[in-house]
């Protein structure tokens, strides 16, 4: 499963409900709405392409690799959601020093 943060224009609860109706799980509602779904769900809904990649979260340790997805193409907000969603972004895992 994959998570992303949606920046709503207004009416966060309405946006969250609409995303839930589209098959996303709502993890939290704050300044952003954190949603969860399969990579395929994100690709289909936001008409985008994701790639699976990995990086070390603790530099110098070989067993600290974490896999995650990142956009290869820009996510496109569906026309019927443009009044509700300003932006979507996919946070990368943090790197620890």
Descriptive notes:
The chain has 97 residues and is α+β, with helices and mostly antiparallel strands. The chain has one domain. It has helices at residues 12-21, 39-45; strands at residues 2-8, 25-29, 33-37, 50-56, 65-71, 85-89. The strands form two sheets. A four-stranded antiparallel beta sheet has the order 2-3-1-6. A two-stranded antiparallel sheet has the order 4-5. It is elongated.
Structural class: alpha+beta
**What is the CA-based Rg, rounded?**
15 Å
* Widest sheet: strand ordering: 2-3-1-6
- Runs in which pLDDT lies below 50 for 5 or more consecutive residues are none
Count of separate DSSP helical elements: 2
What is the helix fraction of residues, given as a range? 10-25%
* Total domain count: 1
Q: How big a fraction of the residues is strand? A: 35-45%
Keywords:
97 residues; alpha+beta; four-stranded antiparallel sheet; 37% strand; two-stranded antiparallel sheet; 2 helices
């Amino acid at each position: 499963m994959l998570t992303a943060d949606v920046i709503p224009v207004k009416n966060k609860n309405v946006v969250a409900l609409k995303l839930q109706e589209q098959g996303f799980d709502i993890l939290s509602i704050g300044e952003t709405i954190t949603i969860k779904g399969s990579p395929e769900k994100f690709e289909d809904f936001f008409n985008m392409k994701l790639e699976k990649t990995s990086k070390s979260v603790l530099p110098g340790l070989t067993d600290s690799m974490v896999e995650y997805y990142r956009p290869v193409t820009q996510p496109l907000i569906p026309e019927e959601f443009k009044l509700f969603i300003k932006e979507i972004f996919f946070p990368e895992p943090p790197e620890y020093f």
